[in-house]
Design goal:
By secondary structure, the chain is α+β, with helices and mostly antiparallel strands. Helices cover about 30% and strands about 25% of the residues. The protein has 3 domains: about 60 residues, no CATH class; about 90 residues, Roll (Pdz3 Domain); about 220 residues, 2-enoyl-CoA Hydratase, Chain A, domain 1 (Alpha-Beta Complex). The strands form 6 sheets. It has a 6-stranded mixed sheet with strand order 12-13-14-17-18-21, with helices on both faces. Strands 3, 15, 16, 19 and 20 form a 5-stranded antiparallel sheet that branches. Strands 8-7-9-10 form a 4-stranded antiparallel sheet, with helices on one face.
């Protein structure tokens, strides 16, 4: 985390100078940033800002204290930058720290905005949202009695989180439906193990990563060792669908489990020292197992880093639908003791130099989940629709009954298994590898 440097804001002329010198005591500047001179300051805009502040203080129907106005001003500055930068007051900063630790009171849904509308990016596995059937691309119209129109992402998170055991009601509108639906959820401690594993059929493993936490890389290596203990693995499906991302280092660690060398991801920003490169090491848990990576439009950030690295290094086949396209880096910067700043400082790039931001990862093999997706324009695809009963699992093998049922309703997963079996028949030990 970069160090923080503060400098007094140079006063604007006339009346604004006195007000700004008392109310805007300091502005945080990046480390090594140069002190601006008088000619660098947008004097007219600062004067206008000071006048707006003074008018609100003097004439607004309700009295508003200085701290609230300044906090609102900071929120506005950051909210207008991009969807992921935010000013964090004491409560929001605490919530963000809890999220980083992987434990908080909530319903387990990753949210974003599309055309100003609050949307579900993905429900997290084994959470109230996932169990209630909330899906990616659901529009959230209300949270309890609070309309979401005009709410920032941070404000929406604040109203959705709360004490464990309390309830909230989401009013959602799903693509293709004319009327909204109300879903009542009970908040739980959102603290899920990020890695699950099983066998799809003898010799073919399944590895599911729901989000990238600090220990996800270690969990992946443990899961690979457990799968390998069942016998020789002929192939592996790495499922990153509806994975909203998480810790950058965890994405590097997971990629390193499959890559023996080479670049995984690099970042580019404006600050000195912000540009970083992350490479795989020779210590690799599964360097040669044939690999299919599943992604969809709920795969974001760290999930896209892993898929991009596997794709660019030609280590495996990326299958599914185009990913979300969240390729920006946020840093959590403390402000004083209780507040903070979440600021976008860089962009992610795949080993071949592709920017993930607003582009996403295009799969090598496109496989959609529902019949409606095939006939509709790509921008309107309902990526969460299931193709029921398309593929039968290996129901004659009792220990795979749970995943067999899943295969019957998960066309993408079934196609990934079919591809791995085809590669095994052809004798391909490392698919798509030069």
């Amino acid at each position: 985390m970069p160090s923080r440097l503060f400098t007094n804001l140079l006063p604007a002329p006339r009346v604004a100078a006195a007000w700004l010198s008392t109310c805007l005591l300091a502005l945080p500047l990046a480390a090594n940033a140069q002190q601006p001179d008088d000619s660098d300051l947008p004097v007219a805009e600062i004067q206008a800002f000071a006048e707006v502040f003074e008018r609100i203080k003097r004439a607004y129907v309700d009295e508003v204290d200085d701290a609230t106005l300044l906090q609102n001003a900071m929120r506005g500055m950051l909210n207008e930058l991009d969807p992921h930068s935010a000013y964090l007051d004491a409560d929001a900063f605490r919530d963000m720290q809890e999220s980083a630790r992987g434990e908080f009171g909530g319903v387990g849904v990753e949210i974003g905005k599309r055309d100003g509308q609050l949307m579900v990016i993905t429900p997290l596995d084994d959470t109230p949202a996932a169990r209630a059937g909330i899906m990616a691309r659901d529009a959230i119209l209300r949270v309890d009695d609070t309309p979401t129109e005009g709410l920032s992402l941070q404000e929406a998170l604040e109203v959705m989180r709360g004490d464990i055991g309390t309830q909230l009601e989401l009013t959602i509108l799903r693509d293709g439906e004319s009327a909204p639906r109300n879903i009542t959820l009970t908040r739980e401690t959102i603290s899920t193990r990020s890695v699950k594993h099983d066998l799809l059929s003898p010799g073919y493993g399944y590895l599911r990563i729901s989000q990238f936490q600090s220990n996800t890389g270690e969990q992946v290596n443990e899961a690979l060792a457990t799968l390998a203990a069942t016998g020789e693995l002929k192939g592996l499906v790495l499922d990153l669908r509806n994975n909203p991302g998480g810790v950058l280092q965890a994405a590097v660690d997971v990629s390193d489990s499959f890559l023996e060398s080479g670049l995984v991801v690099y970042t580019k920003g404006r600050l000195p020292g912000i540009d970083q490169r992350f490479s795989a090491t020779a210590t690799t848990a599964a360097p040669d197992i044939p690999l299919v990576v599943l992604i969809n439009d709920g795969s974001a950030s760290a999930a896209e880093i892993v898929a991009g690295a596997i794709q660019d290094q030609r280590r495996g086949v990326v299958m599914g639908t185009k990913s979300f396209g969240k390729g920006s880096v946020q840093q959590l910067i403390p402000l004083g003791e209780n507040e903070g700043l979440k600021l976008t400082t860089a962009l992610y790039y795949t080993p071949n130099g592709r920017s993930i931001q607003a582009r996403g990862i295009t799969p090598d093999v496109e496989v959609v989940r529902g019949r409606l997706e095939v006939s509709e324009n790509a921008s309107q695809r309902l990526r969460e629709a299931d193709l029921d009963g398309h593929l039968k699992g290996n129901n004659d093998v009792p220990e795979y009954n749970i995943l067999s049922t899943r295969l019957e309703n998960d066309y993408q997963l079934g196609e990934a298994l079919n591809l791995l079996k085809a590669l095994d028949v052809l004798g391909e030990r490392a698919p798509n590898r030069p």
